[in-house]
Write a structure and sequence with these properties.
This protein is 18% helix and 28% strand. By secondary structure, the chain is of the alpha+beta class. The chain folds into two domains: 126 residues, Peptide methionine sulfoxide reductase (Metal Binding Protein, Guanine Nucleotide Exchange Factor, Chain A, Beta Complex), CATH 2.170.150; 35 residues. The strands form two sheets. It has a five-stranded antiparallel sheet with strand order 3-7-6-5-4, with no helix packed on it. A hairpin with a 5-residue loop joins strand 1 and strand 2. The N terminus is likely disordered.
């Protein structure tokens, strides 16, 4: 179960003042949500990320009632990553009046996720052992490619000659 979010094109402000980006599980790097689903009127928080929608990779647990003093009586569901099963935080469906700002939002603990900001930290999101090598970075690969291209051109010319002058 997941809720779909607002579709804001890249490069367009989400209206919240939050840099456009994707929230990924801190364990497996699968996308959990994005800044386009940042609720209007909420300031960026360093502890909890509130979202109006999450991806289908977020598992939503069964309904529970809190007995903790701060949020006693709140109805919530535990959120976790369906890929690595890391607990992300909670979705509150009912709260006491002093927590009404948390109701009907997906709350994700910032310690359980990482934020990838578009065009900002691509190198940081790829582990060095899994980084990509471009053709321009490897002169040996370029030389091999040119040799193969020349061989293919010779074969092509030979087949065309055979086609035109069969024995």
């Amino acid at each position: 179960m997941a809720h779909s979010g607002n579709n804001i094109p890249l490069g367009v402000s989400s209206g919240s003042g939050v840099q456009l980006g994707v929230y990924q599980s801190g364990n497996c790097r699968m996308p959990m949500g994005d800044t386009a689903d940042w609720p209007p009127g909420h300031e960026e928080d360093t502890v909890v990320v509130p979202l109006t929608a999450v991806t289908q990779l977020v598992e939503i647990g069964r309904q529970m009632t809190s007995t903790e003093p701060y949020n006693a009586g709140s109805q919530y569901q535990v959120l976790s990553c369906s890929c690595c099963h890391k607990v992300l935080d909670k979705y509150y469906s009912a709260t006491p009046p002093h927590l009404s700002h948390k109701c009907n939002l997906y709350h994700i603990d910032s310690a359980s996720i990482e934020k990838y900001e578009f065009g900002k930290n691509l190198g940081q999101s790829i582990h060095p052992s899994k980084s990509l090598i471009t053709i321009e970075m490897d002169p040996h690969f370029e030389k091999l490619t040119m040799e193969q291209k020349e061989s293919l051109e010779k074969l092509r010319a030979h087949f065309l000659e055979l086609k035109e002058h069969p024995e």
